[in-house]
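Readers of this paper often ask what the protein records in our data store actually look like. Such a record has a labelled line for the sequence and another for the backbone structure tokens. The tokens are whole numbers drawn from a learned vocabulary of local backbone shapes. We quote a single record here, exactly as it is kept in our systems:
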Amino acid sequence: MLQIGSLKLKNRLIMAPLSGITNLPFRRIVKRLGAGLVTTEMVSAMGLARQQEKTLRYLKSDPEERPLSVQIFGVDPQVMAEAAQIVVDAGADLVDINMGCPARKVVKTGAGGALLRSPDRVRDIVSAVRSVCSVPLTVKTRAGWSPDQPPACDIARIVEDCGADAITIHPRFVTQRFSGTADWEIISQIKSRVKIPVIGNGDVWSPSSALDMMQKTGCDGVMIGRGALGNPWIFREILDLDKGLDPRLPELWERREVILSHFSLLTDLIGEKRAAKIMRGLLLWYTKGLPCSSRFRGAFTDIHDLDTLITAMDAYFDSLTGLSGAPMSRTDSITHPTLVKECCGI
């Protein structure tokens, strides 16, 4: 169990905020599969303060996904405080402040990762939000702006001093974006310097890597981002491995059911046509690493409703019936000789 302020989570696994990914449907799916906490896409504080309809849609939630963290970003302390009040009133169980996003459109405004160059602004923002935030408050940040400006430990102490209940660290520099390797030693350094919970993030691609991060860094929780793309089962697999069990790998029928569930939830949220368009891209993730998936990707572009989705999926999954029902991880499926032979005709 992980406790952040007054909020007790059922486990130490958190779904990271991912733009265009961690919408309500995806959050509900990963929650079903074991995530202890889910997080919205990054939400503009200015958009919330201006009551922009498009921005307010990010706050739509469902009881199934609780507890819910809402991540906000911005550069003005008072606007950030106002945004925090709005998301709390909307039902957020936790408010998270983004201080690490490397996206150019965010950084050029002075928000996200750019804040790591302004420790005083970090202090002002966290203090302002803390003064009005009635739920637990966390901050997600990075190792620093660049290797020659690595203030991660200093920022962590500021965040703690200003009343945040936990800090999440992605140990890459903002200038790295997602290149290179996450330096987990930075997580260890921060853990040794603050008393609030420290959540590690970065390069968690498998169940074993999640446990390795906790063991090597001493972090209190693990936030998983890109490792869950097309693989929401990673949360369940980590929990199994943590209990000393063999991870329950997704069976072929389960992959199909989750894809259909994802489409159904998207349809409820945005309508069938828009959901179908989004699913074309998501199917690339859901089938990535499976045998001969590239052969069927052309069919994905023809998906425009539930019927065409089912047709495209059946054409692919029926080709895998030689091992239908057999549990497979992505790695197993790539190298499984019987399945490769039957699918590719070798």
Remarks:
- The mean pLDDT is 89.
- DSSP finds 16 helices and eleven strands in the chain.
- The CA atoms of residues 204 and 210 lie 6 Å apart.
- The first strand starts at residue 2 and ends at 4.
